[in-house]
Amino acid sequence: MKYDVFVIGAGMAGAAVAKKCAKAGLKTAISDLRPYGGTCALRGCDPKKVLIDGASLQEQVQLHLGKGLSGEVKIDWGELMAFKDTFTDPVPENMEKGFEKAGIDTYHAPVSFLDEATLQVGQQAIAAEKIVVVTGARPRELDMPGAAHAITSDDFFNLTQLPKHITFLGGGYISFEFAHLAARAGASVTIIEHGPRPLKHFEQDMVDELVRVSREAGIDIRLNCQAKRITQQGSEYEVSLEGEAGRGTLETGLVVSTIGRVPEVGQLNLEKGNVVHGRKGIEVNEYLQSTSNPRVYAAGDVADTEGLPLTPVAVYEGHFLAANIIKGNSKKVNYPEIPTVVFTIPSLASVGFTEKQAEEQGLDYSVNSLDARKWFNGRRHRAPAYAYKVLVSKSDGSILGAHLVGPLAEETINIFALAMKAGMKARDLKSFLFSYPTMASDVSYMA
Ligand SMILES: Cc1cc2nc3c(=O)[nH]c(=O)nc-3n(C[C@H](O)[C@H](O)[C@H](O)COP(=O)(O)OP(=O)(O)OC[C@H]3O[C@@H](n4cnc5c(N)ncnc54)[C@H](O)[C@@H]3O)c2cc1C
Ligand SMILES: NC(=O)c1ccc[n+]([C@@H]2O[C@H](COP(=O)([O-])OP(=O)(O)OC[C@H]3O[C@@H](n4cnc5c(N)ncnc54)[C@H](O)[C@@H]3O)[C@@H](O)[C@H]2O)c1
Question: What residues does NAD(+) bind to (predicted)?
Answer without folding.
Answer: 170-177, 193, 260
